[in-house]
Design goal:
By secondary structure, this protein is an alpha+beta fold. It has one domain: Beta Barrel (OB fold (Dihydrolipoamide Acetyltransferase, E2P)), CATH 2.40.50.320. 17% of the residues lie in helices and 44% in strands. It contains 1 helix and 5 strands. The chain has one helix at residues 3-19; strands spanning 22-34, 39-44, 54-59, 73-81, 87-97. It has a 5-stranded antiparallel sheet, with no helix packed on it. It is globular. 13% of the residues are buried.
Length: 102
């Protein structure tokens, strides 16, 4: 293989890696399901490598994911960050129903 061919392969690999989305797993409690906006408002703990714990809205990749989710549920979710830094919930599972505060 020529040096130019090897350089092209390395450059292509580097570009492809940079264009790949990053995934981050987190847990939190759903505060609100915003079906019309395809969003969830979640209070979550720290998302390692991405952000500290906070409450915020997240866009959901597939609106059908919202069909089984309700406010008060504890969830585990995967955030995918694209090359522009946009975040989207791409996986979602219910862990439990959060206890109500008295």
């Amino acid at each position: 293989m020529s040096k130019l061919g090897a350089l092209i392969i390395v450059a292509t690999f580097a570009w492809t890696s940079a264009a790949t989305a990053d995934n981050f797993t987190a847990e939190g409690v759903v505060n609100a399901v915003k079906s019309k906006e395809h969003k969830l408002n979640i209070t979550h703990g720290p998302v390692l490598g991405l952000m500290s714990g906070m409450t915020m809205d997240f866009i959901v990749h597939d609106p059908h994911m919202l069909d089984e989710i309700q406010a008060g549920q504890r969830i585990r979710f995967v955030l995918t960050q694209d090359s522009r830094g946009n975040l989207e919930v791409t996986e979602l599972e219910q862990i439990s129903v959060a206890s109500s505060r008295k």
